[in-house]
Design brief:
19% strand, 11 strands, two-stranded antiparallel ribbon, eight-stranded parallel beta barrel, alpha/beta, 12 helices, globular, TIM Barrel
Length: 296
């Protein structure tokens, strides 16, 4: 079997969850602050990205971070261009940790319109997919945001996601389609009901291409059970979306077949000031709690 076959089998069938380590330019200062690194610690973007890469390296190199409990990790493009422990990041994850590498490919969000934020144009997508293939990346991730139960807005989000998702499939990669519903949306449950139907329509029309979904933990328990069972789905993962790790895990446990793909909830409690032993112990507890919530 090829690496890609092994990776597909792992992502589709193994126990575990996906670590989202893909903070980009807009979210990096907040991620660093939560990690105990103030903005005064860096003078420019280059220094900021050096510091966040050091944080990611510390996470990935920790003995707690292995393929025994982690299916995959989502990387920011700049991380894909860097090394971890002297080896390219994607190669390190798969060859040293048995963790499947994914790449964030979107360029951020357009301004809100019709109750949603679609993705900005991606003029360099084909070149990025070519690079991802060359680096041994298995799949991609791209995020839109739904802020209210607008049928036309939600349809636009889902159509854009699947349109680009098909291009990613054609390039030989598995896309994680992420139409996030804002956890603070006043009509969150209604928005999720609309989203559920739009996603099923697109899945039914996919032909022989396979995708993953990354979804906000829903108000209605097991809302996405049909999606999880769909022939075109590799895996359905959940984002933490601003919930605390405890609340995200509690909601995840109720939704059978969903596994986590947490970012902030994964790194909650980690600090640049911790000793390696303290850091590893905190990360181990976080990974174990998310792993157990993902087993339901």
């Amino acid at each position: 079997m090829s690496d890609r076959d092994d990776q597909l089998a792992k992502v589709r069938n193994a126990e575990g969850f996906i670590a989202a380590l893909d903070q980009s330019g807009g979210s990096t200062p907040k991620a660093l602050k939560l990690y105990g690194v103030e903005e005064s610690a860096y003078a420019n973007d280059e220094e900021m990205f050096d510091l966040v890469h050091a944080m990611r390296c510390r996470i990935c190199e920790s003995p707690a971070f292995t393929g025994d409990r982690i299916l995959g990790a989502i990387l920011f493009e700049m991380t894909l261009d860097r090394d971890i422990a002297g080896k390219n990041s994607a190669a390190y994850l798969w060859q040293e940790k048995n963790v499947v590498p994914f790449l964030k490919v979107d360029k951020g969000l357009a301004d809100e319109a019709d109750g949603v934020q679609v993705m900005k144009p991606m003029p360099e997508l084909d070149a990025l997919l070519e690079k991802a293939n060359a680096r041994g990346v298995f799949g991609t991730k791209m995020r839109s945001v739904i802020k209210s139960a607008s049928e036309s807005g939600i349809r636009a989000v889902v159509e854009q996601q699947f349109e680009i998702g098909k291009r990613i499939c054609a390039a030989g990669l598995v896309p994680i389609i992420e139409p996030e519903v804002d956890i603070n949306a006043p009509d969150k449950a209604e928005a999720e009901a609309i989203l559920s139907g739009e996603l099923l329509s697109q899945l039914d029309a996919l032909g022989d291409q396979n995708v993953m979904l990354k979804l906000t933990l829903p108000e209605e328990t097991n809302l996405y059970s049909k999606h999880i069972a769909h022939d075109r789905i590799v895996r359905v993962v959940a984002l933490s979306g601003g919930y605390t790790r405890e609340e995200a895990n509690r909601r995840l446990t109720r939704n059978t077949g969903m596994v986590a793909s947490f970012s902030r909830a994964l790194t909650e409690g980690l600090s640049a000031q911790q000793s390696d032993d303290e850091f590893d112990a905190t990360l181990d507890q976080s990974i174990e709690a998310i792993f157990q919530a993902s087993r339901t």
